[in-house]
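User: I've been trying to design a sequence by hand for this structure and keep getting stuck. Would you show me what you'd pick, starting by listing the structure so we're on the same page?

Assistant: Good idea, let's start from the same input. This is the structure you sent:
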């Protein structure tokens, strides 16, 4: 049961790792066959690699955001008093939730409107590729909620 919880907790990281492995593997195979066997053509590989890479980026960005791994500029924050730092952190978290939710909504609209475009070789709707955006930003919206709760708790502890 513990291993299932661990897998579910890190599902975004696992998916990103699998997608990245597929991107690298398909790229190597495609380059190998193009270089050594110019008559063999994997026309579908380029579109597949692009789609997998887009998913890798958006799901990976959400995974990094969950662990607060994105780069931030802390030099100016460190000049402020601790309580103001905590208040600004809560404000930024709330602003990020609003921004992520709004961008997820826009991305969903873009994905639904992009379903009329079709990939050249795979003949799949671009909606499959575009869907990475609302999923990624949706995950970041969800991951922001525990950040807000944690940072608000830290802010209240400073009052006590």
């Amino acid at each position: 049961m513990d291993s299932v919880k661990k897998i579910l907790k890190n599902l975004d990281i696992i998916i990103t790792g699998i997608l990245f492995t597929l991107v690298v593997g398909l790229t190597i195979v495609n380059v190998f066959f193009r270089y050594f066997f110019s008559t063999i053509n994997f026309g579908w590989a380029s579109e597949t690699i692009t789609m997998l890479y887009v998913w890798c980026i958006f799901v990976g960005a959400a995974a990094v955001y969950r662990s607060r791994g994105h780069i931030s500029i802390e030099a100016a924050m460190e000049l402020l008093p601790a309580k103001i730092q905590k208040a600004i952190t809560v404000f930024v978290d709330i602003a990020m939730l609003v921004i992520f939710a709004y961008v997820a909504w826009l991305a969903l609209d873009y994905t639904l409107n992009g379903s009329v475009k079709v990939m050249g070789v795979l003949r799949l709707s671009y909606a499959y590729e575009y869907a990475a955006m609302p999923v990624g930003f949706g995950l970041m919206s969800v991951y922001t909620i525990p950040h807000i709760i944690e940072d608000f708790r830290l802010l209240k502890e400073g009052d006590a």
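That's my pick for every position. To get oriented when you compare it with your attempt: The chain has six helices and no strands. Residues 110 and 142 are 20 Å apart (CA to CA).
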